[in-house]
Amino acid sequence: MFLYRDTKEEDLEAICSLVKTPKELFYMFPSALYPLSVSQMKDILEKRKAHTTFLYGEEIIGYANLYFLEGEDAPYIGHLILSEKYRGRGYGKRMVEIMIRQAFALYKNDKIKIAVINENTKALLLYMKLGFSPFKASLRFDKRGEEKVLISMQLDMNKVKYGHDDLQGVWA
């Protein structure tokens, strides 16, 4: 059964273990150092909101949070990671839908944003299918100094259609 709940400190080690490669970490958390550590995650817990752990049964399979960038008019979904074992099965879509709901409940904003590295094609396509549209592109450099493009995308909350009325969550 797919569930979600507030992230607990004891989840952090399992969340860190979801990131298997430097490339995955760059996609999830571009400024972090590989391997992702519990101390890096603790820093995130202090700076962001709606820290959400996703589970399949009792197994931690994903994580995401929400944040505002200074000068921006809408919250972002951030640090989204899904276990490789569960990719391609609809769980990523469900995770994003849940984070959209959390953003709306927390901020009452009429839009939500997400950012994705250009070469993360599967994520980019998923966000487009969910109704996100690109609004900005900016240059980023990976840890090897290679140029990448960060594509910022926006979703108008008035256009959101949830396809999973059966989503279950446990919120503390």
Brief summary of the model shown:
With 172 residues, the chain is an alpha+beta fold.
Helical residue percent band: 25-40%
Instruction: Measure the end-to-end span.
Output: 19 Å
Mean pLDDT: 93
Q: Tell me the Rg in angstroms.
A: 15 Å
Q: Biggest sheet, strands in spatial order?
A: 1-2-3-4-5-7-6
Q: What string, H for helix and E for strand, traces the elements in order?
A: EHHHEEEHEHEE
- Oligomeric state of the chains in view: single chain
State the CATH topology: Aminopeptidase
Unreliable stretches covering 5 or more consecutive residues:
163-168
Total beta strands: 7
Describe the largest sheet: 7 strands, mixed
CATH class descriptor: Alpha Beta
CATH architectural arrangement = 3-Layer(aba) Sandwich
Q: Roughly what fraction of the amino acids lie in strands?
A: 25-35%
Q: Which homologous superfamily in CATH is the superfamily?
A: Gcn5-related N-acetyltransferase (GNAT)
The number of helices is 5
**Given the C-alpha coordinates, what overall shape results?**
globular
Describe it.
The radius of gyration is 15 Å and the shape is globular. It contains five helices and seven strands, in the order βαααβββαβαββ. The chain has a seven-stranded mixed β-sheet with strand order 1-2-3-4-5-7-6, sandwiched between helices. Helices cover 28% and strands 32% of the residues. The chain has helices at 12-17, 22-28, 38-47, 91-107, 121-129; strands spanning 2-6, 49-56, 59-67, 76-82, 111-117, 133-141, 147-156. It has 172 residues and is α+β, with helices and mostly antiparallel strands. The protein has one domain: Gcn5-related N-acetyltransferase (GNAT) (Aminopeptidase, 3-Layer(aba) Sandwich), CATH 3.40.630. The model is unreliable at 163-168 (pLDDT under 50). Strand 3 and strand 4 (76-82) form a beta hairpin.
